[in-house]
Amino acid sequence: QVQLLESGGGLVQAGGSLRLSCSASGRTFSRYAVGWFRQAPGKEREFVAVISYRGSSTRYADSVKGRFSISRDNAKNTVYLQMNSLKPEDTAIYYCAADFRYDSYESGTAAYWGQGTQVTVSS
Question: What is the band of 28 on the pLDDT scale with cuts at 50, 70, 90?
Answer without folding.
Answer: confident
